[in-house]
Write a structure and sequence with these properties.
The complex is a heterodimer of chains A (392) and B (572). By secondary structure, chain A is an alpha+beta fold. Chain A has 13 helices and 15 strands. Chain A starts with a helix and ends in a 7-residue tail after the last helix. Classes of the chains: A alpha+beta (392), B alpha+beta (572).
């Protein structure tokens, strides 16, 4: 398991979500193994020893947003409730421990919270997340909490401004130093049409890796497909987009085989897009600013309370349509295909972005970059318009 | 709980101690706990109880929780035994005001037990002797939900099932024979009592969370998932993974399996959705006339394992087993072992004739009714029984999934795929994919999954729920229902207690490391490699190493036993 630990420490560094040097993982087989920052490694191992699970990740995020969310939370509140679809679905809520609650036996307190949830924020320490069956799962849960706190914090700031001392300065540093320009420049794509299975599998694996490397997805979120004739090649469920070799299912369009039962939960959405359009490729990611901005709804007299599921309106972020719909069979597959046919791009409320290409992945990838860049600019335009000049 | 003594024709109620409810939840856990004084008895001893136990979520709208567990000691394996079943029986038993029904004693002539709120009657049913399950259920039409045995149970077939009137079975370990040995032909339950929910808002939120996760799961509600095609959705996948047991596990691919895939069954039999009471998944499939269509394990074992490609023959074999009250996996696997021993696997027609012979113990059926291990030993070819602890292996070849290989052996009820259900992560990628050709971490993973599933079987919920949901959501449902706070961790700790209790009983009955072994074929012969997938034999030394890790994780000795005799004394 040591190789797994090393691999996921490295991933948290390369995706820039955790502070290098402040990352640790622990895993238990018949004995416990822990690696990384010694203080966090001990914490991870101690917590793990109290739980019925295999893996544990403990790391300080590269951004202080989780701590700020804790500091901004009113007294008596003990968890963050994510509003983005993915973490809302899988995490439900994210409990936190304030600094003042860490006296005595902090490992026991963390283990108690992780006994009920997949990840916890420990103020001043970082995010601690468990993996029920694998080290990889601990990484995914850690990364999911990071994604959720990022989205939640940006949304909170947009609505309520800065509240806690140091926030404005930290946010300015994030904006200037942490955020990189998002671009498709420097990437090479195979020119379509793609019709040889080996080429398709290789290109899907390459483009999947691009989405991770360029920060269009966190964790394992997202999926990717290519249609060739009557077969849809699609990434498998719970597959890491930067490691898709061997994790792509060829699924017949006519459902004559159930071999694709392991395909992405969004297979139905992909298939319907192909049925309704001439698209040959589809890319789905969860770029963070698009997720944040998709939830900025100006409607003031609306009776819908479950916006993720029940909103039937089509809104727009620039020229990109925004629709509601939950994951898998939860409505997204019904609402996305009709609106993506024309613009070849669509945003799902609180969830992420779908883009399509007529020939190859270059068009779909660039479209996703454009959507995210538009949302990023619009976010800061609105934030700056609030008078939060301190962020500059 | 309702206790019934068939010998004295007496029924009475007792309170279940709160300590046991908290410590074992219900269903499998509670039943296993109540076997503490009986686990050493012979399965056919009149004093051996057969226990029907619902879980704390039964009667609520918790998804897939209208289930119960039946617990006793298996005459096939000699182990403690439980099996979870759906349908409507559990829900109606709960509505009759009964959480647990424990039946002991023996009636000299066939009887049925009728349970309604406040009333339990033992009625003589000599006219039902030898009747099929369908005929028996029909005899109680309009009286409630029925759990019955067929001729196989009456005649002591060691893999006889108890069949629910709705077509669900209490399968595998021969609890139908235990019921038959008591002279109990059927149990009929009905009632109208409702279940109180301590915190309705919390319950509704948790329920919505579960449904959202079901919708997000491709295995459950995906367009190729089990809601659409039932478990035969796995046929194509197992073929592609080259781990479909074929011709008594001599090969791991059956070229004609497409004949009985999920889409083929839908096309040829116009399959429609069917399922357990209140279940949103409806994974069972039936014909427009209501004939129940076979599950994955059944199509694969009556198909590939016996080299039969005819879907109609497979469906007929399934229906016959349901009518006679026999387990399809053990029946098909026993026929396959016998077929290899004689040098020819039975064809579809011969299978059907033999199934009847087994149920009525005629001709070759007398031998085959004992299951593959006893039959193969009797034929001087013990190595041909593809079983662990005498329970025939289902349709997941262990050479194609090493966690499955380990889990078959650590299972407390013998070669069963459902105790740890590693197919979930090794094949279906839920909740996360693991390397199916690696033992790394599998000892811990299997132990965790066994604990989790022991809790699931005690709630009692369907394991298919956990292709989407987790114990997080079900702990919420339980807390909201009972008003007592549970967490996934506390449920897994309860699951561990249940699992170790079962293991303790088995050890007390002589089981040890010598029984936690795969048939030698899996260590000596490779599977069917091809299409870029190598299926080597399972490395015995590596397997043993992982098994020893498992023992250490469980706190057992290298012999797979308990280091002291006080384990039960430390449990509530």
């Amino acid at each position: 398991m040591r190789d797994q630990i090393v691999k996921y420490i490295s991933k948290l560094v390369s995706d820039r979500s955790a502070m290098p040097g402040e990352i640790a993982f622990a895993a238990q087989d018949d004995v416990i193994t822990a690696e990384g920052d010694p203080r966090l490694a001990k914490l991870a191992a101690d917590v793990l020893s109290r739980l019925t699970c295999l893996g544990m990740a403990a790391a300080r995020p590269s951004l202080p947003f989780a701590d700020f969310l804790v500091a901004r939370a009113p007294e008596g509140v003990s968890c963050i409730v994510p509003r983005d679809t993915e973490t809302r679905t899988f995490l439900h809520d994210i409990p936190f421990l304030r600094r003042g609650e860490l006296a005595g036996d902090p490992e026991a307190a963390i283990a108690r919270l992780l006994g009920s949830r997949k990840g916890v924020i420990v103020e001043g320490v970082g995010i601690v997340a468990s993996g029920a069956l694998t080290v990889e799962q601990a990484y995914i849960n850690w990364s999911s909490v990071f994604h959720s706190t990022f989205v939640t914090y940006l949304r909170d700031v947009l609505h309520d401004g800065f509240i806690v001392p140091g926030e404005a300065e930290a946010f300015a540093a994030f904006r200037i130093h942490w955020l990189h320009p998002l671009t498709a420049e420097g990437l090479s794509f195979r020119t379509g049409p793609l019709d040889r299975p080996d080429d398709i599998l290789a290109e899907i694996a390459t483009v999947g890796r691009y989405t991770v490397e360029r920060g269009l997805v966190d964790s394992f979120f997202g999926n990717i497909s290519c249609r060739s004739g009557e077969v849809v090649y699609i990434s498998q469920t719970a597959a890491s987009l930067d490691a898709l070799a061997g994790c792509i299912d060829p699924v017949p369009m006519d459902n004559s085989s159930t071999f694709g039962i392991t395909a992405s939960s969004e297979l139905l959405a992909h298939r319907r897009i192909y049925e309704l359009s001439t698209a040959a490729t589809i890319l789905h990611g969860h770029p963070r600013f698009a997720v944040v901005m998709s939830m900025e709804c100006e409607e003031t007299r609306c009776g819908v309370t479950d916006c993720w599921k029940d909103c039937d309106r089509v809104r727009f972020l620039g020229d990109t349509p925004v629709v509601a719909g939950e994951i898998g069979a939860g409505g997204l597959a019904k609402r996305v295909p009709p609106v993506i046919v024309g613009p070849r791009r669509a945003v799902v409320y609180g969830h992420g972005v779908f883009t399509a290409g007529d020939k190859d992945f270059a068009e779909a990838f660039r479209a996703m970059v454009e959507v995210e860049n538009w949302c990023r600019e619009e976010y800061f335009r609105r934030l700056d318009g609030m008078g939060a000049a301190a962020v500059e | 709980m309702l206790r019934v003594d068939l010998a004295e024709r007496r029924a009475w109620t007792e309170e279940i101690p709160q300590e046991l409810l908290h410590g074992y939840l219900g269903g499998r856990g509670l039943g296993v706990r109540l076997m503490r004084e009986y686990h050493g008895l012979d399965p056919f001893d009149p004093a051996m109880p057969i226990i029907f136990a619902v879980g704390p979520l039964c009667g609520t709208q918790a998804p897939t929780a209208a289930r119960l567990t039946v617990i006793s000691r298996s005459p096939l394996t000699g182990t403690i035994y439980d099996c979870s079943a759906g349908g409507r029986f559990a829900w109606r038993l709960k509505a009759a005001g009964v959480d647990l029904l424990s039946i002991t004693g023996r009636s000299a002539s066939p009887v049925a037990l009728r349970v309604t709120p406040g009333v339990a009657e033992i009625i003589d049913v000599p006219h039902l002797r030898g009747k099929s399950v369908h005929e028996t259920v029909a005899a109680f039409a309009g009286e409630g939900s029925v759990a019955a045995i067929g001729p196989a149970g009456e005649n002591g077939v060691l893999f006889a099932n108890i069949m629910m009137g709705e077509g669900n079975s209490v399968g595998r370990g021969g609890l139908g024979a235990v019921m038959g040995a008591k002279g109990l032909k059927a149990v009929v339950v009905n009632g109208d009592r409702s279940v109180a929910i301590a915190d309705r808002e919390r319950f509704d939120t948790a329920r919505q969370d579960v449904i959202r996760l079901f919708r997000a799961s491709p295995v459950i509600f995906g367009e190729l998932g089990i809601a659409e095609y039932g478990t035969p959705a796995l046929v194509d996948l197992m073929r592609q993974r080259r781990m479909a047991p074929t011709e008594n596990f001599r090969r791991t691919i059956f070229e004609e399996s497409g004949n009985y895939s999920g889409p083929a069954i839908r096309r040829d039999f116009h399959a429609k959705k069917d399922g357990c009471y209140g279940c949103p998944i409806q994974c069972k499939k039936s014909t427009p006339l209501g004939e129940h269509l076979p599950e994955y394990e059944t199509v694969s074992h009556f198909g590939a394992l016996n080299g039969i490609a005819s879907l109609s023959a497979i469906v007929r074999s399934n229906t016959l087993c349901n009518e006679l009250g026999m387990d399809t996996i053990s029946a098909a696997a026993t026929l396959s072992a016998w077929g290899e021993a004689r040098g020819r696997f039975p064809d579809g027609e011969e299978v059907q004739r033999l199934l009847s012979d087994i149920a009525f113990r005629r001709g070759d059926g007398e031998l085959l009714a004992m299951g593959s291990r006893r039959a193969a030993e009797s034929l001087g070819r013990p190595e041909l029984s593809m079983s662990v602890k005498g329970l025939e292996l289902p349709a997941y070849d262990p050479r194609g999934a090493y966690g499955m290989a380990l889990a078959y052996c650590t299972s407390n009820r013998g070669g069963c795929h459902l105790r740890a259900y590693p197919i979930s992560h090794e094949i279906l990628r839920k909740p996360i994919a693991t390397d199916r050709f690696s033992f790394s971490g599998k000892a811990r993973i299997i132990a965790i999954a066994e604990d989790t599933n022991a809790a699931v079987d005690s709630l009692v919920a369907c394991k298919f729920s956990f292709f989407g949901a987790t114990l997080e959501e079900y702990a919420e449902l339980l807390s909201a229902t009972t008003g007592v706070d549970y967490s996934p961790q506390s449920l897994k700790e309860i699951g561990s207690r249940i699992y170790l209790t079962e293991r303790y009983y088995n050890c007390a009955n002589g089981f040890s490391v010598k029984d936690d072994v795969l048939p030698q074929r899996f260590h000596a012969e490779a599977g069917s490699s091809g299409e870029g997938i190598e299926v080597p034999a399972v490395d015995r030394a590596r397997f043993d190493e992982e098994l020893q890790k498992y023992y250490r994780i469980r706190g057992l000795t290298p012999e797979g036993k308990f280091p002291d005799r006080d384990f039960l004394l430390r449990c509530p």
